[in-house]
Amino acid sequence: MLTDLRIKNLALVSDLAIQFGPGYNSITGETGAGKSILIGALGLVLGERADRTLIRDGDDHCSVEAIIDTACLGKAFHAHIEQNGIEPCEGGQLFLKRSFSASGGNRQFINGSPTTLSVLASIGEWLVDIHGPHDHQSLLKAARQLDILDAYGGLEEARSEFAALVDQRAALAGQKADLIVDEDAYARELDLLRFQVAEIELARLKPDEEPELEQAFQRATHSARLAELAIEARGLIDDGEPSVSDLSAALGRTLQEMAGIDPGAEPLLAEQRAINEQLADLSGAVADYAERLSLDPERMKQVEERYNLVQTLKRKYGSTLAEVIAFGEKAAKRLAAIEGRDEELARLNAETAKLTEQIRSLGQALSAERKAIAPKLVKEAERQLNDLGFLQSRFDVEIVDPSELGQAEAALSRTGFDQIEFLFAPNPGEPFKPLKVIASSGEMARVMLALKTVLAVQDSIPVLVFDEVDSNVGGETAGVVGEKMKQIGAKRQVLCITHLAPVAAAGHRHYLVSKEIVEGRTLTRLTRLDGEARIKELTRMLGGGGAAARQHAEALLSIPK
Predict the structure, then answer these.
(1) Is the peptide bond before 402 cis (omega within 30 degrees of 0)?
(2) Which fold has domain 2-162+355-529?
(3) What is the mean pLDDT of residues 293-318?
(4) pLDDT score of 197 more than 80
(5) How many CB atoms are located within 10 Å of the residue 51 CB?
(6) C-alpha span between 138 and 279 (Å, rounded)
(7) Nearest-angstrom CA–CA distance, 116 and 377
(8) Extents of the domains making up the chain
(9) How distant is the alpha carbon of residue 326 from its chain centre?
């Protein structure tokens, strides 16, 4: 549901903030008041191209913001959001913003993050259908029409199963493509893989050996200097002039004399003796360390060669030994597949043939169900169209199976074999034409209204906007149009710009678009009408003044919403 719309510096709008409610929202106003600005603004924030001539005179920047409640949209929409790198909707609220300047700047945001115009437009297709002279009509797209038919017939599960089979077949095709190469390329890859696998296997790598190897390499590389330092350390302990041992002994004699005078000094003497023992231990440990440094040249050579081998493999195949080992395992698997490609190709061909048969069977069953469902949709749509004044109109759903035309392979899309087109003939004697080529926007809007009434339960787009839906409509048909709006409003949010009082009166909420002059500038305003104000507007729409018009307006509002 569209909850908030804010427009700044667009045409006659300076700064307009609008809050819409659920259900059916009717919008009225005199010709030229600026009702079309609302549709244009909504189109802009949904990704339509910007016309910079619409920037308000005297300003160089225009912006439109919208807040849409996404509670009725499922996981697929939020997955689409995530796939496009958009922040999740906090509290189920989707924030859209579009701004552009006279100098050519153009920026768009979704949930506060900058995005591209194409992403904004793709998000918009999930949110709003605009029917009228500024069309944002997903129902005109063949793919959308197929979605509608399948939703009407409850075929989503069968279609998902079909799509999964097609995806599996595509995955097999990718595996086959990897195996089917020219012989020169095959030979080169085979030689490379054999070398890589052999090089890594011969190394007999262990994932955890690197720290110990690094330590051994450093010790071997600097063994001469380490030996010098060990000798120096022992000399400081035992052979210096004076040595640490000599100093400790002298300290011991001093403390012993102290203890002879004062027994309270005995603990100090005990600590000194412990230090003597530690010095002796340290001297022995340094000697042992020095002895271990005396590696034979062959062992030193082995350590160096192992270290250099590990570094070489890391440069080629991964930053860690674990990555090198993983690379080798993957290469070995690929090598086995290539060396056994004939057998692998035979297996893949067999699986592909099996999947193709399953696809053909399920696709044909899906097509048959669609052909069985289509007449029911046609009948219901024609009934709704008759209610809307198309008393002799005809509606049809054309379904073509490309496999019948020898295009089975090309027809393996994720949606099935069928190509679909909604057709319409508004008058007797006229041929059926696709919806997308119907010339009259008024006719188009009413056809969309009829279909939306039929499909209100199945259709997932939360916001429907109708403009000029009442073109060439009058009398009882106007009341029927209003009733259809109300019916759809029970399932979806509806915004309808109308010139007919019966259509406006059916709204759960009524908004008036008007113009006023402020400081010599013309401004468009939008006001929600209730009570007397609403009666006054409906009276105007019914012909102006007079008691009869007012009574008619009151009667229209007395009809239960």
Answers:
(1) no
(2) Rossmann fold (3.40.50)
(3) 77
(4) yes
(5) 13
(6) 88
(7) 37
(8) 2-162+355-529, 204-335
(9) 32
- Strands of 426-507, DSSP E: 433-434, 463-467, 493-497
Which pLDDT score, from 0 to 100, does residue 405 have?
Answer: 46
Q: What are phi and psi of 3, to 5 degrees?
A: -95, -35
**pLDDT at position 166:** 92
The C-alpha angle with vertex 254 and arms to 249 and 257, in degrees rounded to 5, equals 125
Does 179 score more than 90 pLDDT? no
Distances in Å between the Cα of 190 and the Cα atoms of 182, 183, 325, 332 are 12, 10, 19, 11
Residue 485 in contact with residue 506, Cβ under 8 Å? yes
Structure tokens at 224: 């001469």
Q: Where are the alpha helices (DSSP H) in 318-340?
A: 321-339
Which amino acid belongs to residue 175?
Q
For 272-297, the pLDDT digits (tens) are 888 878 877 787 787 777 766 665 66
What phi and psi values does residue 447 have, to the nearest 5 degrees?
-60, -45
Q: Give the count of beta carbons closer than 10 Å to the beta carbon of residue 246.
A: 14
Distance CA 229, CA 436 (A): 90
CB 448 within 8 Å of CB 145? no
pLDDT in tens, 4-46: 999 988 888 888 898 999 999 999 988 777 777 888 888 889 9
Q: Quickly list H helices, 107-222.
A: 117-127, 142-153, 156-179, 183-203, 210-221
Q: What pLDDT, on a 0 to 100 scale, did the predictor assign at position 134?
A: 44
Entry pTM = 0.58
CB 434 within 8 A of CB 422: yes
